[in-house]
Amino acid sequence: MKKIILIVLISIFLVGCNSSNEVKKDNELLNGNFIITPSTMFKSDEMKVLEPHLNLRTGCVEIQYNGEKKWLSTKYEIWENGELQNSHENFAVSIINNKKDNDFDYNGSISISINDYLISDDFHILSDMTMITAIDGSSSKKIIQRYDEKYSSSIFNLKEQIEVNDTEEVAVWALIGIDDKNGSRYSPKSTIEETVKETDWALVLKVYFSDDKLN
Q1: Confidence grade of residue 108 (pLDDT, cut at 50, 70, 90)
Q2: Which strand (E) or helix (H) includes residue 176?
């Protein structure tokens, strides 16, 4: 069963995201700007049926960029009680020579999956979770301390397509933990950054472009 799940995940990461949103053409995107478009790893009916059985929290965005930056990078932030606790550089890929004829300087996707319920051999929930981040055909796996096992959890995907300058960092996905047994509640806001300020715990994935591999 584990081998089947692994094969499915590899196929998903190799294929990348699927988006129903219309993106701009190359000549409509200003130099030094990038577009982030919400997407999904499970678009077909067959994959939607399979998704609940994989025990994963997933997210995906498509990115188009025109500019001079050399690296597409990701970082993740840990928030607790509505405050940023720490930030970690995550994964980066070179986008030099990525451009094809009549295309953007970069045109690809970023996807993330988290397994937040790892079970030990004696059937206890582990205090860690695994996070896989994929940019096109490359990926990185990290072990991260999970939220309190008493918390309920949900994901927050990017809601709308946005265009920003390549000097900015953009939050594209979040895993949120809420202590609802003690009465905690949160109301989703228009942005991920605003939403996590009302949560007990959150992991936020951010993307940015840079001249160096990692800032």
Answers
A1: very high
A2: strand 170-178
